[in-house]
Every structure is written in C-alpha cells, then in structure tokens.
Design brief:
Layout lengths: L3 E4 L2 E5 L7 E3 L10 H12 L23 E3 L13 E4 L3 E12 L17 H13 L2 E7 L2 E2 L3 E4 L4 E5 L4 H6 L5 E14 L9
Parallel strand pairs: 4-6
Antiparallel strand pairs: 1-5, 2-7, 3-6, 6-11, 7-8, 9-11, 10-11
Length: 201
C-alpha cells in the first residue's frame, strides 16, 4: 500500500451556488491543463448523490473515482464552509474549484424543469456560467496562510459527462435521467503540487 499523506486545504469562496442544471459550486504553481476543469466535472457528476463528495461533510468519500497522479477535491453547492480530511497517495497533485459553474445541456427532457424543448442551449449555458463567475468576489484559497494563484478556465468546446440515475441534480430537481450529456463550464480553479509538505492546512 502506498504511504498516505494527510493534507487539509482551506478553501474560502464567498458567493452562492446556483442549484439548477446550471450549477455553480486560487491555483498552485505551474500551468493548469485546459482539460482539468472538464475532468473535474466528469468526476463530480459521475458519483451518485448519497456518496457525492460535494455533499460530504467529513471527507469520507474523497477517494471515490480518483485515479492517476492528480486527484480532485470537491467544493459545495451551498457556498457554506466545510472542513474535510482526505488522505491521498504521496506524489499526488490536488486540483479543486474555488468557484465554478457548469451547464448540462438537456434538450430533450419532456415533463421536467430540465426540458429545453428540443433546442440545444450550450451558448446560453456559457453566458450563465460567465455571469456567475464574473459576480464572484472575495474569492481565495490558501495553503498554510499563503495565497494560492487563481486560474480562470472556460469551456470553448463542450465536453461529455455521464451521470448515474441518482445523480446530484436528479436527487435535487428530479432530472436529468441517467445518460451522457454535453456540458460547458467556467470557473476559478487551484492546483496544489505534490511537493507541498504534509500536514498543511
């Protein structure tokens, strides 16, 4: 078994998450890959509501769906502060949102509030995402009291994400059903390098 390192990251985001299919829930040294934000959403949306890290108050589900040398940390959909403890393998980078927003395109969801009347609305989603992030103020992320750099990432192309039947939006809104959907996102993200020392907060 790999030696584990416990890191506690303090993430402060002032603002409110918009709980709808448009969900709105500062980065470390080095550039962040453009695909990291899409991969974060693919991770977060793929996990069912009962064990979804976005609703985890302790960190017990932080390892679900993680793989490779970059792990994802979850924010919340409420904007409320939460303290979680998560053990990660040595040499792992951590990537997390300080404030982010995603639009899940659901053109055909008749009888639900997600229905778009058969019309794709990714451009509308981009506008909503941008407005949410533009409105974010007093946003910060720190490591041992030192501010981390914030990187703003924006979807220029859509990305696919697969959601289970008990996905977080279905649990809260009654849709969408299980399936693979096109998405666009925008957000402020942070990346913590694996060289950061253990036991930090």
């Amino acid at each position: 078994m790999n030696k584990r390192v416990r890191r506690v990251i303090e993430i402060i985001a002032v603002g409110f998450a918009s709980v709808a299919l448009q969900s709105s829930a500062v980065a470390g040294p080095g550039p962040i890959a453009r695909s990291s934000d899409a991969a974060w959403w693919q991770w977060a949306l793929a996990i069912g509501f009962d064990q979804n890290p976005l609703f985890d108050n302790t960190g017990q589900y932080c390892s679900l769906g993680q793989a490779g040398h970059e792990w994802y940390l979850a924010g919340t959909l409420t904007g409320q502060a939460v303290e979680r403890t998560c053990s990660v393998p040595v040499g792992t980078w951590l990537f997390f949102p300080v404030s982010n927003s995603v639009w899940i395109d659901t053109p055909n969801a008749p009888g639900t509030i997600c229905d778009q009347g058969g019309v794709p609305m990714l451009d509308v989603g981009r506008e909503i995402n941008k407005a949410f992030i533009d409105a974010a103020t007093n946003v910060s992320a720190t490591l041992d009291g030192q501010a981390l750099q914030v990187t703003r990432l924006v979807s220029e192309e859509f990305f696919d994400a697969t959601v289970p039947a008990d996905n977080i939006f279905n649990a809260l809104l009654g849709c969408p059903e299980a399936g693979t959907y096109q998405n666009v996102d925008e957000g402020l993200y942070a990346r913590l390098p694996h060289s950061a020392r253990a036991g930090t907060s």
